[in-house]
Every structure is written in structure tokens, then in C-alpha cells.
């Protein structure tokens, strides 16, 4: 469990992040504050692992706040102005969120924080970051939770990506590259420029065709992706 705090001089910005934190099983909201100087005392007391921190605040800037806590907590910056990103990264922040903060981007930043804050080999009790994703669908303003275990395969379709589940297809407005980077590498592999597959569903390979459990169609293996796939298969073969 990651203990977190939200520091922002605008209450409505805090309200949004509080809502997101409460939806995330492996985050615990310790406190939130519109007064950065008061928030410094909470962090200094060792009660917080992660701070969601606004950059532009009248009492104390986010950059000065980071310098003042001297590494006692990790920081995810939040701001409406992208020009502050470089200075934030120079101070070794975990991530940088542009307002208005969207839930999928928030979850991506939290997963980065998990990688930094969890000891090597440790796994959060819920394993939630490996269980599901939130995606933007073709319907404006609609987010959909996708359980990774339900995915049959993923197909690139021009400006969209199609997630196939149980014979149904969900169109997601993203790129194959972005989705590939967000999926757990131990569970999924890109086998073609247009296909990502769950490794646990492979039932057989014949030439450049791959068969998946529960999927009627055969998946084409791209020449550029075949060596990595075959290396994985060789490691599982009985000699």
C-alpha cells in the first residue's frame, strides 16, 4: 500500500485526485492540503510515501517544496503548464501530469510510482496494476475497465486499437505502441505490427501462423517479431 498526499492550492483539483485515489486499491490517502507549508510538516514526519504536488502555488512553489522535503517522499507533479516539465524531471520526480488530469493517465503515473517505491521482487497484495487497464473507448468521455484475463488478442486498426474479448470487439483510441508499453511483458507479446497476444493463450504455431485458445482466427506472426517469440517458445520446450 502506498501512502499518498495531495497538495494543491485549488480545492477542485484536490477533489478530482481524491476521487481517483479512492478508486485505486493500492493507494491510501493520508491527507490533502491547500497549504504547502502545512503539508511539509506531514511529509517531514515520515507519514507519506508519495505526493501529488501542484507546481504553481502562492505560498510555496512545487519546485521549492520538492527541495524542502529532501527526498522524504516521491513526487508526481500536477500542473496546467507543460513548460515546467523539464525542471521537474531534473529534480527526479516520478511523473508529470497535465491538468485536467484523466484517470488512465493518473493510473499510468501511479504504476511508475509503484515500480519506484516497491522493493525489488515485492508484489502489491491486490496485484491490481497487473489485472486491468482503464481505456478510452470510441464514445466521447467514456472510460472502460478491461480485465487483462479476458483479452483474447489485440488488433491494430488505423487510428484505433481493437481489443477482442469473448467474441466481442472494443475499439480504443490509442496506438499499438502505447498499449504495448502499458501491458505486462510477462503476460503479453507483440507478434506482428497489427497484433498483440496473451502468451497464456498460445496453443500452437505452424509456420508464420499462431493459434490461440478460444480464438477461431489464426494470428499472423511478423518476421520482425518472430525471433523473440521463438526464443520464448524454445525456453519452454522439452529438450
From TrEMBL:
Transcription regulation as UniProt keyword: no
Superkingdom per UniProt: Bacteria
PANTHER family xrefs: STAGE 0 SPORULATION PROTEIN A HOMOLOG, TRANSCRIPTIONAL REGULATOR-RELATED
PROSITE patterns: HTH_LYTTR, RESPONSE_REGULATORY
One of the Pfam families matching this protein, by short name: LytTR
In-chain residues carrying the UniProt-annotated modification 4-aspartylphosphate: 54
Keywords on record: DNA-binding, Phosphoprotein
Tagged with keyword Phosphoprotein: yes
A Gene Ontology molecular function term of the record: DNA binding
Domain HTH LytTR-type per the UniProt entry, residue ranges: 138-206
Matches recorded under InterPro entries: CheY-like_superfamily, LytR-like, LytTR_DNA-bd_dom, Sig_transdc_resp-reg_receiver
Name assigned to this protein: LytTR family DNA-binding domain-containing protein
Organism: Flaviaesturariibacter amylovorans
Amino acid at each position: 500500500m502506498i501512502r499518498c498526499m495531495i497538495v494543491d492550492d485549488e480545492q477542485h483539483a484536490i477533489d478530482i485526485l481524491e476521487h481517483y485515489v479512492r478508486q485505486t486499491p493500492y493507494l491510501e490517502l493520508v491527507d490533502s492540503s491547500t497549504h504547502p507549508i502545512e503539508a511539509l510538516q506531514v511529509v517531514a514526519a515520515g507519514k507519506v510515501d508519495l505526493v501529488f504536488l501542484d507546481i504553481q502555488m502562492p505560498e510555496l512553489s512545487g519546485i521549492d517544496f520538492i527541495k524542502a522535503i529532501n527526498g522524504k517522499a516521491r513526487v508526481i507533479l500536477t500542473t496546467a503548464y507543460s513548460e515546467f516539465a523539464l525542471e521537474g524531471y531534473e529534480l527526479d520526480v516520478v511523473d508529470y501530469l497535465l491538468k485536467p488530469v484523466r484517470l488512465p493517465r493518473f493510473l499510468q503515473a501511479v504504476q511508475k510510482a509503484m515500480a519506484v517505491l516497491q522493493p525489488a521482487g515485492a508484489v502489491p497484495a491486490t496485484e491490481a496494476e497487473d489485472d486491468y487497464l482503464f481505456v478510452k473507448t470510441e464514445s466521447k468521455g467514456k472510460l472502460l475497465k478491461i480485465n487483462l484475463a479476458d483479452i483474447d488478442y489485440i488488433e491494430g486498426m488505423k487510428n484505433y486499437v481493437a481489443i477482442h474479448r469473448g467474441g466481442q470487439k472494443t475499439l480504443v483510441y490509442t496506438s499499438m505502441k502505447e498499449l504495448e508499453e502499458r501491458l505486462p511483458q510477462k503476460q503479453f507479446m507483440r507478434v506482428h505490427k497489427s497484433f498483440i497476444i496473451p502468451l497464456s493463450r498460445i496453443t500452437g504455431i505452424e509456420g508464420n501462423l499462431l493459434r490461440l485458445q478460444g480464438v477461431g482466427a489464426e494470428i499472423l506472426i511478423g518476421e520482425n517479431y518472430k525471433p523473440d517469440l521463438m526464443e520464448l517458445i524454445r525456453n519452454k520446450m522439452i529438450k
